[in-house]
Write a structure and sequence with these properties.
The chain contains 13 helices and six strands. The chain is of the alpha/beta class. Helix 4 runs antiparallel to helix 5 and helix 8 crosses helix 10.
Amino acid sequence: MAMPASPTIRRQRLGGELRRLRRAATMTLEQVCDQLGWASTSKLSRLELGQSRPDLADILDLLDVYHVVPAEREKLVIIARDAAATRGWWKALGSMGQRQRGYTELEASAATIFEYQQLLVPGLLQTPEYARLRVRSGRDVYGDLDINADTLARTARQEVLRREHPPHYEAVIDESALLRASVPPETRRGQLRHLTALSELDNVTIQVLPLEAVVHDSFMPHTSFSLYSFPDPADPRTVVLETLTSDIHLTDDEDVVLYARIGRWLQQAALPVDDSRDLLAKLVAES
């Protein structure tokens, strides 16, 4: 069973709707806050940016100020309730760190997921052994880590690919990510076999971008990224870039369209699915 809409995505959707309503009413942040008696504009600004959990009473007050008609009001109240439903989500996600929760929330509510990975096997495709190695490799950067908990969290996320009504998942993995010398041969073999097995799932497409591939007129991808879309087409598609210390979420149409275009270029340059499986089998034999 699919989980309800991601609170993070619903906050971004709600923020965009509130911003649209304010502009349609030709009101400034200051004018709205003065009318509501709010001490500063930061509260409304954070709501419009999708950066804070909304209070339903505040949303109802805003809808009154903007004179929203009943049909649209009902729709926005539902979105606001989804955006505020943090407690139920956190219970469903269990004992995960904040960054793991962020990915899980997006993955669990997505209709489609596309990932391009230059350096690593994507988290949703990692074996427990590979995931443990990945987590342990961060000790010198992040300090004290609960390796067991983080590894379990990574593997728990993967259940989304095998649930009833799973998202459609597509991945392009750079061949160099599969050849890392830092991965022990046995772990590498197990990971390659796991990728082959996952590629047999109806909802999973895995392509390998070979070392000699030329991407769209010699375009050189700048970074790995993930792109999520959601069942409600009005919820903003989201691109996530993972950095060393935090994750960057992009929802502006211009940004998303650009990354989606790059994703298509990568898929076109990568080996077809069957040829990718053949390469994975070859790498298993050679490892």
